[in-house]
Specification:
Elements (H helix, E strand, L loop, with lengths): L2 H41 L28 E10 L6 E8 L13 E9 L6 E9 L9 E6 L14 H9 L5 E8 L11 E6 L3 H12 L7 E7 L8 H10 L3 E7 L14 E2 L4 H7 L6 E6 L1 H14 L6 E5 L26 E4 L4 E4 L7 H7 L17 E6 L2 E3 L11 E3 L3 E3 L3 E3 L2
Parallel strand pairs: 7-8, 7-11, 8-9, 9-10, 11-12, 13-19
Antiparallel strand pairs: 1-2, 1-6, 2-5, 3-4, 3-6, 13-14, 15-17, 15-19, 16-18
Protein name: nitric oxide dioxygenase
Family: In the C-terminal section; belongs to the flavoprotein pyridine nucleotide cytochrome reductase family.
EC number: 1.14.12.17
C-alpha cells in the first residue's frame, strides 16, 4: 500500500466518523425540537382541546348584580394579621344591606372613602384610597389586605401613610365604611395558557386573588408565583401559600428573600437569595407561552417589565400594575428634547377657569395633578394612580393624553388629572 492510499483510507475513515456523529447529533436535536413543539402545542389555546373555565366571569351572572352605583356601606367582620411583623392586616367586609355581592375579576380593587383626621392640621378630611381584593370572588364577603406604610428608614420626619395607618389603628371589627364597586383593568384573563405571577412586597395582594380563584376551579393551567420580600418576617400568608403549593401540582411557588435572616432556611422557607429579576426567570422557567402578571414597587416594575420585552415576550402577554402614588414611572412619557435641551413640542397653556389662572405648561411636570398643585390650585385627589376617580375634572376646552390607561373610567368630557397631560391648550373647570 502506497503512502497516498494510506492517507486516503485515513481521510475516508475520519469522514465516515464525522458523518455518523453529525447524523446522531441532528437526530438528537430533532427529538428535542419535537418535544418542545409538543409542549408548546399542549399549552397553546388554539391547539388545546381542554375547555376554558370561566367560573368567575361576570358574563355568567345577572348584570344587575355585577356592580353598584356610588357608595355602599360595608361592616368590618374581622381583622387578621398576615405576617410576623404585623405590618399587613386583612380586613373582611360584609355588606350592611345583606344583599348579594357582585362577582369581580381576580386582580381588581375596592375604592374606600374615609373620614380621617390629618395628623398635621388635626382637622377632619375625606381621603379616597384603592386597595386590591386579596381573595377569590363568589364568597359572602370581600377581603382587602393592607400594609402599614411607615416613613423610609432614616426619614422619620416624613409623614406615614395616612390611609393605611388609619385602617390599622382606627378601623376595628364592627366599623362601617363607605365602599365603591370593584373596579380595575389589571386582572387575570380566563384561559388555559400557563401563567407567571410576579409580586414584590404588598404587590402579592392581587396575586392572592388570582391564585385563590384559579386553584379553586377545575382549571389545571400551570401557575408559577415568584414572590419577593426581605425575609420571612415580611412574607404575607406564608402558611397559606405553602399549603396551596402542596395541594396543587399545577402551582409552583418560588419565594425570594433579599435579606434572609439566620432562622430562614434556603430550600424550605425560600428558594432564592436575592430579588426577583430576569436572570432568575430565564434560568427557572421552561420554554412555554406564559402570560406574565407583575405587581410591585417602582424598582421592580422598571426593571422586569422592559427586561421581559427584551427577552422576546410579546407585549400582549405582559400585564402589570404598580402600587402606591410614587410607583408610576412617567419618565418614558416625557417629550423628546431638541439639541440644547429644549422640549420638542409647541408651547401649551393650561387654564384653570375656577381659579382664574392661565399658566404655561411645564413639560417637567409628571401630570396635570402635579402641575396644579405646583401652582397652588386646590385639587381633590386620592390614589394618584388613575384608580379612584377623586381627581376627575371637566375639560371645557382642549385635549389630554393619558400616561397610562386609568382603572377608573372618567365621565364623558372629563379627565383624571393624576394620569394625564395636555396635548394642546387646555381649559379645566377647577
Amino acid at each position: 500500500m502506497t503512502s497516498f492510499e494510506l492517507i486516503s483510507y485515513i481521510f475516508a475513515a475520519a469522514f465516515f466518523q464525522l458523518s455518523v456523529f453529525g447524523t446522531l447529533a441532528f437526530y438528537r436535536h430533532w427529538q428535542v425540537y419535537q418535544t418542545m413543539k409538543s409542549n408548546l402545542s399542549e399549552f397553546a389555546p388554539e391547539l388545546s382541546c381542554e375547555p376554558i373555565v370561566e367560573d368567575y366571569s361576570p358574563d355568567i351572572i345577572d348584570e344587575k348584580q355585577s356592580v353598584w352605583t356610588g357608595l355602599r356601606k360595608f361592616r368590618i367582620d374581622k381583622k387578621v394579621f398576615e405576617d410576623e411583623s404585623q405590618s399587613i392586616c386583612s380586613f373582611y367586609l360584609v355588606p350592611v344591606d345583606a344583599q348579594p355581592l357582585p362577582i369581580f375579576k381576580p386582580g381588581q380593587f375596592l375604592t374606600f372613602e374615609l373620614a380621617v383626621t390629618d395628623p398635621v392640621s388635626k382637622e377632619g378630611k375625606k381621603v379616597i384610597r384603592c386597595y386590591s381584593l386579596s381573595d377569590r370572588p363568589g364568597l359572602d364577603h370581600y377581603r382587602v389586605s393592607i400594609k402599614r406604610v411607615l416613613p423610609p428608614a432614616g426619614s422619620q420626619n416624613l409623614p406615614t401613610g395616612l390611609a393605611s395607618n388609619f385602617f390599622h389603628d382606627n378601623v376595628q371589627q364592627g366599623e362601617v365604611l363607605d365602599v365603591r364597586s370593584p373596579n380595575g383593568h389589571f386582572f387575570m384573563e380566563a384561559s388555559n395558557r400557563p401563567v407567571v405571577l410576579i409580586a414584590g412586597g404588598i404587590g402579592i395582594t392581587p396575586m392572592l386573588s388570582m391564585l385563590n380563584t384559579y386553584l379553586d376551579t377545575k382549571n389545571l393551567r400551570e401557575i408559577w408565583l415568584f414572590y419577593g420580600v426581605r425575609n420571612s418576617t415580611d412574607q404575607a400568608m406564608k402558611m397559606h401559600l405553602e399549603a396551596l403549593a402542596k395541594e396543587h401540582s399545577n402551582f409552583r411557588l418560588y419565594i425570594c428573600y433579599s435579606k434572609p435572616q439566620q432562622k430562614d432556611n434556603l430550600g424550605i422557607d425560600y428558594q432564592h437569595k436575592g430579588r426577583v429579576d430576569i436572570s432568575l426567570l430565564r434560568l427557572t422557567l421552561p420554554l412555554k407561552p406564559f402570560q406574565f402578571y407583575i405587581c410591585g414597587p417602582r424598582p421592580m416594575m422598571e426593571t422586569i417589565v422592559p427586561a421581559l420585552d427584551e427577552w422576546g415576550v410579546p407585549k400582549e402577554n405582559i400585564h402589570f400594575e404598580a402600587f402606591g402614588p410614587a410607583s408610576l414611572s412617567k419618565s418614558a412619557f416625557k417629550k423628546p428634547l431638541k439639541e440644547g435641551g429644549k422640549i420638542d413640542s409647541p408651547p401649551v397653556t393650561v387654564t384653570f377657569s375656577g381659579s382664574g389662572k392661565s399658566i404655561p405648561w411645564d413639560e417637567n411636570s409628571n401630570s396635570l395633578l402635579d402641575f396644579a398643585e405646583e401652582n397652588d390650585i386646590d385639587v381633590e385627589s386620592g390614589c394618584r394612580a388613575g384608580g379612584c376617580g377623586a381627581c376627575q375634572t371637566t375639560i371645557e376646552q382642549g385635549e389630554v393624553e393619558y400616561i397610562q390607561a386609568p382603572d377608573f373610567d372618567p365621565d364623558p368630557g372629563c379627565c383624571l388629572l393624576c394620569v394625564s397631560r395636555p396635548t394642546r391648550d387646555l381649559v379645566l373647570k377647577i
